[in-house]
Amino acid sequence: GAESKRLRERALSVIPGAVNSNIRLSAPPVFFGRASGATLWDVDGRDYIDYVLGQGPHFLGHACERVNAAVAEACAQGMLFGASQALEVEAAELVLQALGWAERLRLGLTGTECVQAALRLSRAVTGRRKFVRFDGHYHGWLDNVLISPDERARQASDGQVGEYLNDSFILDWNDADALAELLREHGDSICAVIMEPVMVNTGGIEPRPGYLRRVRELCDQYGVVLIFDEVITGFRVARGGAVERYGVVPDLAIYGKAIGGGWPVAAVAGRADLMDEFGSGRVNHSGTFNGSVMAAAAVVATQRLLAENSPYDRVADYGNALMKGLAAVAADHGVALNVHGLPAAFHVSLGPQMPVPDLRTLNELDLAGYAALTDRFVAQGLWVMRRGIWFVSAAHGDAELDRTLDRFGAALGGASS
Ligand code: PMP
């Protein structure tokens, strides 16, 4: 709309890329004015059903009253930065209760930062330097993990991250034999294996049956710290994230996004014998804004809500119905749509319906063709990412499902409203 275009012009002359979070540079540009539940409104007054959810955080829906009220109430008591306060303790207690397996937790601000804390801790406790990560897995934007599966981005970042590339080995995920071979050769120089336990960032790919268990055994065999990056999967695919879903327990895990009902907060959690090193003074993890009352209050309110009123079955029902519905509507329009992944976070691209066990199979699908279509979805009032990930929230209901499928059909039919 006109107001979005005006804002875009203003933004481009003061903000490189026009938006600080870089979620999606849509053409035509869309600037948002407000959001509630599963709906966004742009500054021109048009509504969108939201499947981006800020890239995951708004699992409870936008402007969740109970969480926002808890944060406002805590702030009214003073911010208390840099001071111990009770809410921080309660937040840690509630998250650890929800997870079941972890004994200690530290709050941070972003997933990126907490990933770095976990890697640093792994180096400290093992005395080893290198870590293992997997092609297509995203762990934040800092130099030592910033390698994108996208060739252009890879080349760009290769030139910038320089020697950090030597910090890690990059393997194919879902291939336990490759990890076994690497550890046999280099195990005594490797401190940690870090992965998205479900590869959501590149394609919504589940671990093969038995894979996580085999990785767990290999890490035990070689004294390597196993880190699950549950920034997306935590409190989303189940309350206890991928650990609950697959029953394999890491040594450390990173949480973010959904943990605080949309407020900026993240955490690293894990076994006491490792995590207590943060308290020893030998391993630094800190920050002016870490463990703020807003973050803690958001986590406490979110965790209470999730405990009292578990949305996971509803979200799974919605996601499953949406996945089936999108494929059916596409088929009605003669479009072959591949929809796969978990109902709370699935992946859509053009191509035949088939199982997608790894990046190679994913790349047989038409990801670019799908990305090109997303402008039409946005034009019809569906806010979706170009890279095919759809996030579902607890605020999506029957009305949203019907409207989504109508709008999806209209976009594929080339009609405009
Ligand atoms: N890990 C994963 C799996 C993520 O998806 C993300 C963010 N998309 C991060 C880490 C980084 O988190 P943040 O953006 O909060 O720094």
Question: How does the SSE layout of this entry go?
Answer:
Layout: H1 2-12, E1 32-36, E2 39-42, E3 47-50, H2 65-76, H3 86-99, E4 104-108, H4 111-126, E5 130-134, H5 151-161, E6 168-171, H6 176-186, E7 190-195, H7 211-222, E8 225-229, H8 241-246, E9 252-255, E10 266-270, H9 272-275, H10 277-280, H11 293-308, H12 312-332, E11 337-342, E12 345-350, H13 359-362, H14 367-379, E13 382-383, E14 389-391, H15 398-412
Parallel strand pairs: 3-13, 5-6, 5-7, 7-8, 8-9
Antiparallel strand pairs: 1-2, 2-3, 4-10, 9-10, 11-12, 12-14
Helix pairs in contact: 2-11, 3-11, 6-7, 12-15, 14-15
The chain binds 4'-deoxy-4'-aminopyridoxal-5'-phosphate.
Estimate percent helicity: 40-55%
Number of helices: 15
Largest sheet data: 7 strands, mixed
What is the beta-strand fraction? 15-25%
Q: Please identify which CATH superfamily of the largest domain we are dealing with.
A: Type I PLP-dependent aspartate aminotransferase-like (Major domain)
Protein name: Aminotransferase class III-fold pyridoxal phosphate-dependent enzyme
Cofactor: pyridoxal 5'-phosphate
Family: Belongs to the class-III pyridoxal-phosphate-dependent aminotransferase family.
InterPro entries: Aminotrans_3, Aminotrans_3_PPA_site, PyrdxlP-dep_Trfase, PyrdxlP-dep_Trfase_major, PyrdxlP-dep_Trfase_small
What does this structure look like?
The chain is an alpha/beta fold. Helices cover 41% and strands 15% of the residues. It is built from 15 helices and 14 strands. It has helices spanning 2-12, 65-76, 86-99, 111-126, 151-161, 176-186, 211-222, 241-246, 272-275, 277-280, 293-308, 312-332, 359-362, 367-379, 398-412; strands at 32-36, 39-42, 47-50, 104-108, 130-134, 168-171, 190-195, 225-229, 252-255, 266-270, 337-342, 345-350, 382-383, 389-391. The strands form three sheets. Strands 4-10-9-8-7-5-6 form a seven-stranded mixed sheet, with helices on both faces. It has a four-stranded mixed sheet with strand order 1-2-3-13. Strands 11-12-14 form a three-stranded antiparallel sheet. The protein starts with a helix and ends in a 5-residue tail after the last helix. The model has no long low-confidence stretch (mean pLDDT 93). 4'-deoxy-4'-aminopyridoxal-5'-phosphate binds next to α4.
